[in-house]
Specification:
heterodimer, A: about 525 residues, alpha/beta, Aspartate Aminotransferase, domain 2, Aspartate Aminotransferase, domain 1, 7-stranded mixed beta sheet, two-stranded antiparallel ribbon, 15 helices, B: about 375 residues, Rossmann fold, 9-stranded mixed beta sheet, 5-stranded parallel beta sheet, 16 strands, about 35% helix, globular
Chain lengths: ~525, ~375
C-alpha cells in the first residue's frame, strides 16, 4: 500500500459521504448548546438582557437556523473536510500566484488560544491592548524594511481591498493638488486582474497593456497610453507568467514623467523577499498579501490582510487610525484630516498580523531571503521537469528563467489528442492532488495552468506532483476518454460543466437552493 | 439520437500547393490538375471524422455520395446514411448547396463540412443560419471564422457539440476574397455573411468565462461606452460586423450587418452607405469612424468595409477612429498586430502604431496596428 516508490503515484480514493446540506440535518427543538441562565447578580444588574433590545430590532419570527446536536455538527464538518483537498492534506503546488506555503501550526495555536488574542475587544481602552498594538507597530516596521517604503497600514482585509485603498489614495493625492482631470489607470494583461477591477470599482477608466514576445508590455505602448489623464499605473511584477520585468524602473519613470503615481502589486512577493524592493524600482505605493507571502493561511475566501505601503509624501492619506508609538506606549492616531478614512472596521483581521509577525520573527532577515531563493530554485527545478512532459508548452520569453511561478499551457496536448486543461485538472484529484489554478480570464495563454512550488515543498513533493502530471499526459495520449471523464476516485464523479461555473445556476444560499428545488 | 451531416468539398485546397490562390471555377481546377495538384480535402476530412467516430454508436450520420462524404465517413469508421446524387469526379458548388439544404431539411443537429472560404459561402447561400455548422479547414483561403483551427480540433468540437458538452452557438464571419483579382495581385475581401457555429473554446475561450453570455455582456458594455462618448453634432460612421451592431441595437436603430451605417445625434442618417454617400455626409463636418476587427487575420480597414475608403479616413482623421473589440477577439490574434489595408500605402503607414481599443465600459486595451 501507500505511494508506489517507483512511479510516485498513489492508489487514491477519496471519501464519498454525499453529506447532506446542514439545513437538511435540522431537527426541530434539537440543540447543540444550552445557553446557561445568567447568575442572579448579573440579572439584578442588567435584567434578562433581552428586554433591552429595541422592539424595531427584534425578529418577528425566529431565524431559520439549523437545529442540530453537537456531535452531528462535528461529524458533518469532518465529513465535508474528508471530501475536500487542500494544503494540509496534499502538496498544494498547483495554486500558482496564491503562494500556498506552510503556515506553522504554532501560529494557529497562538491566534486561536492566546488570551491576549481571544479575550480582547477592539473597543477596549488602548492601554489594555498594548500587546496587539505592539505587534501591529512592529509588523509595520518589518514591512517598511522589506519594501523600502515609509508607512504601512494593515487595515485592508484582502488584496483587492488593498488595491482599492491604494486607488483611493492615488485619487486623494491628485485631488489635494487640485488635479481632478486624471481618470485613467494603466495596468497589464498579466497583472493580477484586480489591478484592473479595484481601480474600476473606485471609478477609474482602465487601460490594459498586452504582453509582447518577452512576456511584458512594450514600453512604447505604455508611453502611448500615458497622458495628463493618467492617475496611476497598477502593475504586478513578476507577472502571473512568472516573468520578471527587469526594466520596470523605466515604466515607473515614464509614468512619473506625466505626473502619475505608481502602485506595485506585491500580493505575491515570494520570489523577491530580501532581493528587490518597491522603493528602488521607484514605486510610490505597494501592497503585500499577508495571507500569501507571509504565511497566514490563504484560501476559501477566509480572513485576509492586504498591507498597503506608501512613500513619505503619501503617508497622510493612509486609512485611520494609524498605530503609533510615543517611546513609552502604543496608541491609535485618529487625527489625520487628509486620510481616505476607514476601509475596514476596527483593526482589520488581527490574527493575520500576529501570524505574519511570528513568521517573520521565526525566519529573520536572512531567513526571508532564503525563503525567496528556495522558492525560485524549487520553481526552476519544477519548470525543467514539467517542460519535459509531452503536451506542455511555455509561452513567452524563450530561454529566460522565471521567478517563483510559471504559467504553462496544455495547448499541444489539446491539439494532439483533444485533452485540455479542464480535463487534466479534473484528473489530478484521482491521484490525491488538489486541483490547480488555470489562469484568470480571459485566457491569453491557451489551455493554461499556473504552478508555484514555494519554499515549503520538498523535492519529493515536487517529484510527486510532476509524476502525476506526466501520468495524466500519458493517459491522455493512450486513453483520452479516461481523462475526459475524470474524476473517477473523487467524492463527485460527474461535474456538470459548464453549469458549475454559471452564477445563475448556482445555489449560493439555502433560500435559493429551496427555491430552485421547489422545497417549501 | 443526435444527427450529424457531413459534406466534403473534394476539390477544396487544390490550388494551394501549386500556387493558384484558390480553386473556385472549373478552369482553375483544370489548371490545378494539370500542374499536378492532388485533392487535400478528403484526407483532412477523414482526420476530423476519425475524432467524431468515437460517437459512432450514439449518433446518426447523414452524408452525400462518394467523395463528397461517403468515402471519408467510411474510412473514418462511421456508418453513414447516404442521400442525394452527384456526378462523381465532377462535383460543383451547386452540389454543396443542395447537400446543405437537404441536410437542413433532415433536421441534423450539426453540419460538419470540409472546404475553404468558397465552400463556406456556398453553405451560407444555401441555408443561412437555419442549422449549426462547423468547417474543417481544407481550402486554400481561410479568411472565414467558421473553421476550427485544425481538422482534429474540428472533429473535437463537433464531438463535444453532439455529446452536449458544448451547447451554445455563435455567429461567425463568412469572408471571401475575389480569386481572380487576387491572382492579379489585388486582394479584395468581402464580408459575405454569418453562419451559426458551436461556441468553440479556442476562439471564445474556456467555457468558464461564461461563454456566449459573457460575450453578449461585453458587447453591451462596449456599445454603452461608445454611446456614452458620443458628441452632439458629430457624424458616427459605423462599420460592419456583429460588434458594431451592438451599438445600433442599443440605440434601437436599424443596422446593416454587412454594410456601413451613419448616425447623427443618436439618430439614423443612412443605412448601407456607399463611399460617395459618406463623403457627401461628412464634408466639412466633425465625424468619427467606429470599426471592429474583421476576419481571422485582424483587419480594421480593407476587409468588408471598403466603403470607408482612404478619402473617408483622411477626412475624418486618425484621432477620430474608434476601434472596438472584445478582449477575446484581440487575444485570438495571438499577438499579431491589427491590420490596415486601405489600398493607400501612405495612409496605412500613418495608421500604424498603438491604438486604444474599446473592450468594455470604461475599459480599453492598447494594441499594435500594422500593415
Amino acid at each position: 500500500m501507500g505511494r508506489n516508490s517507483k512511479t510516485l503515484l498513489r492508489k487514491f480514493h477519496q471519501a464519498r459521504w454525499d453529506e447532506e446540506i446542514i439545513f437538511e440535518l435540522s431537527v426541530p427543538g434539537e440543540r447543540g448548546i444550552l445557553v446557561p441562565r445568567a447568575e442572579d447578580g448579573i440579572r439584578a444588574e442588567v435584567g434578562d438582557g433581552i428586554s433591552v433590545i429595541p422592539n424595531n430590532l427584534k425578529r418577528e419570527k425566529p431565524a431559520g437556523l439549523p437545529e442540530i446536536n453537537q456531535m452531528r455538527v462535528l461529524r458533518h464538518f469532518m465529513r465535508l473536510s474528508q471530501e475536500t483537498l487542500g494544503a494540509d492534506i496534499a502538496p498544494d503546488i498547483g495554486e500558482g500566484t496564491c503562494t500556498m506555503k506552510y503556515s506553522p501550526k504554532v501560529q494557529e495555536h497562538l491566534a486561536a488560544r492566546h488570551p491576549g488574542m481571544v479575550e480582547i475587544h477592539p473597543l477596549q481602552d488602548e492601554n489594555t491592548i498594548q500587546g496587539i498594538l505592539e505587534i501591529y507597530y512592529k509588523l509595520e516596521q518589518f514591512l517598511k524594511e522589506i519594501s523600502g517604503l515609509t508607512y504601512f497600514s494593515l487595515q485592508p482585509s484582502s488584496g483587492s481591498q488593498a488595491i482599492y485603498a491604494n486607488a483611493s489614495i492615488v485619487r486623494a493625492y491628485h485631488a489635494s493638488r487640485g488635479d481632478n482631470k486624471r481618470d485613467e489607470i494603466i495596468t497589464t494583461m498579466f497583472s493580477h486582474p484586480v489591478d484592473a477591477a479595484a481601480p474600476a470599482t473606485a471609478g477609474y477608466k482602465v487601460i490594459t497593456l498586452m504582453p509582447g514576445e518577452n512576456g511584458y508590455p512594450d514600453l512604447g505602448a505604455m508611453k502611448d497610453a500615458l497622458s495628463e489623464r493618467t492617475a496611476g499605473i497598477f502593475i504586478t511584477n513578476p507577472e502571473d507568467t512568472g516573468i520578471y520585468n527587469s526594466t520596470i524602473d523605466e515604466y515607473v519613470k515614464a509614468a512619473h514623467d506625466v505626473g502619475a503615481l505608481c502602485s506595485y502589486d506585491q500580493a505575491n512577493a515570494n520570489g523577491l523577499l530580501g532581493i528587490a524592493r518597491a522603493k528602488e524600482a521607484g514605486f510610490d505605493l505597494c501592497h503585500f498579501n499577508i495571507h500569501k507571502t507571509f504565511s497566514a493561511p490563504h484560501g476559501c475566501m477566509g480572513p485576509a490582510m492586504g498591507a498597503i505601503g506608501v512613500t513619505k509624501e503619501l503617508g497622510e492619506y493612509l486609512p485611520v487610525p494609524r498605530v503609533k508609538f510615543d517611546g513609552k506606549k502604543y496608541y491609535l492616531d485618529y487625527k489625520r484630516p487628509k486620510s481616505i478614512g476607514r476601509v475596514r472596521c476596527f483593526f482589520g483581521n488581527t490574527p493575520l498580523a500576529l501570524k505574519a509577525y511570528a513568521w517573520i520573527m521565526q525566519h529573520g532577515a536572512d531567513g526571508l531571503k532564503e525563503a525567496a531563493e528556495i522558492s525560485v530554485l524549487n520553481n526552476n527545478y519544477m519548470e525543467k521537469k514539467i517542460r519535459e512532459i509531452p503536451g506542455v508548452v511555455v509561452k513567452y520569453a524563450e530561454g529566460k528563467r522565471r521567478l517563483e511561478q510559471v504559467r504553462y499551457s496544455w495547448e499541444k496536448l489539446m491539439e494532439d489528442v483533444g485533452v485540455g486543461t479542464d480535463d487534466v485538472e479534473r484528473r489530478m484529484v484521482d491521484y490525491g492532488l488538489p486541483h490547480y489554478f488555470q489562469s484568470h480570464h480571459p485566457h491569453v495563454v491557451p489551455e493554461p495552468f499556473t504552478l508555484e512550488p514555494c519554499e515549503s515543498y520538498s523535492k519529493d513533493d515536487i517529484d510527486e506532483f510532476v509524476a502525476v502530471m506526466r501520468q495524466i499526459s500519458k493517459e491522455a495520449h493512450e486513453d483520452p476518454e479516461l481523462v475526459r471523464n475524470a474524476p473517477h476516485n473523487a467524492p463527485i464523479h460527474n461535474i456538470p460543466m459548464p453549469v458549475i461555473f454559471d452564477p445563475e445556476e448556482m445555489a449560493t444560499t439555502w433560500r435559493k437552493y429551496k427555491r430552485m428545488k421547489g422545497i417549501k | 439520437m443526435r444527427k450529424l451531416g457531413v459534406i466534403v468539398n473534394p476539390v477544396a485546397g487544390m490550388g494551394g500547393r501549386v500556387g493558384l490562390k484558390g480553386s473556385d471555377g472549373p478552369d482553375i481546377l483544370r489548371r490545378a490538375r494539370e500542374l499536378g495538384a492532388h485533392p487535400q480535402s478528403p484526407s483532412r476530412a477523414v482526420e476530423a471524422l476519425k475524432v467524431v467516430s468515437r460517437l459512432k454508436d450514439t449518433i446518426a450520420v447523414i452524408t452525400y455520395p462518394a467523395e463528397m462524404g461517403e468515402y471519408e465517413c467510411v474510412e473514418a469508421g462511421l456508418r453513414p446514411t447516404v442521400i442525394g446524387y452527384i456526378r462523381s469526379t465532377e462535383t460543383t458548388p451547386q452540389d454543396t448547396q443542395k447537400a446543405a439544404q437537404e441536410m437542413a431539411a433532415e433536421n441534423v443537429d450539426l453540419i460538419l463540412f470540409a472546404g475553404g472560404d468558397g465552400t463556406a459561402r456556398d453553405i451560407c447561400d444555401a441555408i443561412g443560419q437555419k442549422t449549426t455548422v462547423l468547417g474543417i479547414p481544407t481550402g486554400v483561403k481561410i479568411h472565414s471564422g467558421v473553421y476550427a483551427v485544425t481538422p482534429k480540433s474540428a472533429g473535437e468540437v463537433a464531438a463535444m457539440f453532439l455529446e452536449g458538452k458544448l451547447k451554445a452557438t455563435r455567429e461567425a464571419e463568412v469572408m471571401d476574397i475575389d480569386e481572380d483579382a487576387f491572382r492579379n495581385g489585388v486582394l479584395t475581401a468581402k464580408l459575405y455573411g454569418y453562419l451559426l457555429v458551436p461556441e468553440e473554446k479556442r476562439f471564445v475561450q474556456s467555457v468558464k468565462s461564461g461563454g456566449v453570455r459573457a460575450e453578449a455582456q461585453s458587447l453591451h458594455a462596449i456599445a454603452a461606452d461608445v454611446i456614452a462618448g458620443m458628441n452632439e453634432g458629430n457624424y458616427y460612421i459605423i462599420g460592419p460586423g456583429t460588434t458594431t451592431r451592438a451599438i445600433m441595437e442599443r440605440l434601437g436603430l436599424k443596422n446593416t450587418l454587412l454594410g456601413v451605417d451613419v448616425i447623427l445625434n443618436k439618430e439614423l442618417v443612412a443605412n448601407d452607405a456607399s463611399e460617395s454617400q459618406l463623403l457627401d455626409l461628412i464634408q466639412g463636418k466633425e465625424a468619427k469612424i467606429v470599426v471592429t476587427v474583421i476576419g481571422g487575420q485582424g483587419h480594421l480597414f480593407g476587409r468588408g468595409n471598403q466603403q470607408i475608403s482612404p478619402r473617408v479616413i483622411r477626412m475624418v482623421g486618425k484621432k477620430n477612429i474608434i476601434v472596438i473589440a472584445t478582449k477575446e477577439k484581440l487575444i485570438s490574434l495571438s499577438g499579431r498586430p491589427l491590420l490596415v489595408d486601405t489600398g493607400d500605402e501612405e495612409l496605412n503607414q500613418e495608421l500604424t502604431g498603438y491604438i486604444r481599443v474599446t473592450t468594455g465600459f470604461r475599459d480599453y486595451v492598447m494594441y499594435r496596428v500594422g500593415f
